Amino acid sequence: MKNPKPNPEIEAIKASICKDLGYIPGDKIPNSRVSIALGKIDATATLIYAKTLKRKARFAKPGECQYTMELEKQKKEKTDPIKPHNGLLSNKQAAQLLGVTPDNLQQHRRMGKIEAQKIGNRMYFKPEDVERFRIQRAIDKL
Asked: Within 10 Å of residue 141's Cβ, how many Cβ atoms?
């Protein structure tokens, strides 16, 4: 993606701030103290310009940038739906549906309260068995 064309008014504000503080605008060494200061100057110049246009502007709070918000949304989309893999639920998925810990679910399996299938060295549960167990637990609580 190409960088947008620099706004001459923002560049003028940035140059005046750099001159006042004694920084050279082109003096950027990545992750240096000067580079960080120039980044703050750039943001400050943009805010000053926005205020001259009478636009509402402020610094973003930590975790508030668009990129972070999109990552959080993607993470939520990945964790929301519980879909069975090959028609079976993993120990973690079944425990999440039942509202118990995976260890607690394994204890119920060992006691014979819920059936599971062993594939490799992992235990998988049929969705209908999980639903039946959930209903049975609700009845037992009454």
From this structure: 6
pLDDT digits (tens, 9 = 90+) for 115-131: 999 888 889 999 999 99
pLDDT of residue 116: 93
Give 89's contacts (C-beta < 8 A, 6+ positions apart). Answer: 82, 97, 124, 125, 126, 127, 130
Query: Can you tell me the distance from the alpha carbon of 17 to that of 121, in angstroms, rounded to the nearest whole number?
Result: 64
Q: Please state, in angstroms and rounded to a whole number, the distance separating the CA atoms of residues 13 and 22.
A: 14
Instruction: Tell me: pLDDT of 102 over 90.
Output: yes
**4 φ, ψ to 5°?**
-70, 160
Q: Which residues of 43-70 are buried (b: 16+ CB within 10 A; e: fewer)?
A: eebebbbeeeeeeeeeeeeeeeeeeeee
Which residue, chain included where needed, has tokens 């605008």?
25
pLDDT in tens, 55-75: 776 666 666 666 666 777 776
